[in-house]
Amino acid sequence: MLAGTEVLINLLPLTQETRGLIDAGFLRRLPRGAYLIQVGRGEHLVEEALLDALETGHLSGAALDVFATEPLPETHAFWEHPAVFVTPHEACHASERAIARTLRVTAEAVRAGRRPPDTVDTARGY
According to the 3-state scheme, what is the secondary structure of the chain? Predict the structure, then answer.
């Protein structure tokens, strides 16, 4: 799949299997000029591997929303790299109505003996 991927969008959950997944070997399997959009978890990406892929021109650029260290240190190379677009890691602003609806649905599921929706399965890691 990677060989035919011009734009890779990472949305994976962080598990033992996905930690460090996007490393030098992974990035080399993308075609020359590919672009990475990293919005999953910061620990998926081996940051030095990405910098190397950008410096050699193998990747054309990257949009990064998550990092191994958050907040991203002011001295990190990503801030100044011309091929890196850093976005603020902010999911959204939820309305009071949306929060109340989520709490109500969760409470109703618990009272009925059901698993609440969108529950994290700690055995799977997401």
Answer: CHHHCCEEEECCCCCCCCCCCECHHHHHCCCCCEEEEECCCHHHECHHHHHHHHHCCCEEEEEECCCCCCCCCCCCHHHCCCCEEECCCCCCCCCHHHHHHHHHHHHHHHHCCCCCCCCCCCCCCC
CA distance 19 to 118: 22
97 is catalytic: no
CB 109: neighbour CB atoms within 10 A? 14
pTM above 0.70, yes or no: yes
Angle at 15 between CA 14 and CA 20, to 5 degrees: 75
Q: Is 41 a catalytic residue?
A: yes
Class of residue 81 by CB neighbours under 10 A (exposed 0-12, middle 13-18, buried 19+): middle
pLDDT of residue 107: 87
Residue of 29, 32, 41, 81 with catalytic role: 41
